[in-house]
Known about the structure:
mainly alpha
Amino acid sequence: xxxxxxxxxxxxxxxxxxxGDAAAHRMLLERLSRHLRAYxxxxxxxxxxxxxxxxxxxxxxxxxxxxxxxxxxxxxxLTPWVHAIARYKLIDFLRRNRASVTxxxxxxxxxxxxxxxxxxxxxxxxxxxxLKHLPEKMQCAIEAVKLDGLSVAEAAQRCxxxxxxxxxxxxxxxxxxxxxxxxxxxx
Length: 187
């Protein structure tokens, strides 16, 4: 993301979004999705992970940005704030998938992890509220893996579905959540 017009435009959208402009919020999430998709595809290409997994991370990051938008300080640049969330989601993914964090060039990983802790309780509460709109198996898969940190195998046992069922449910569930957020005007 170049720090020129992109920063200015995205920041204007974010500020309008924080003021409750639903159209600006949708546009912001769409634009950020494109940036994040390029970011994750680039990182994943280096470790040979698939596009579907990159897409899940895009949805997760967009969800986090949506849930945490009230924590963004308008005095700061928006791009580094978004980048921090994106990196945090990537590190989280690598940890969960036992992929080696050293395989992926992640800049100042420590900073990201250190800064995110205070946000997670409140955003996981919002996430649990949103999850109620999903079918039971999807809820179960997302809660098990994304909120409770279980492996796919453990989630399959808990939710009584196959491991591939867990992956499909997470993938579809995240897409559905992203769509729900896009439809909703902001509170």
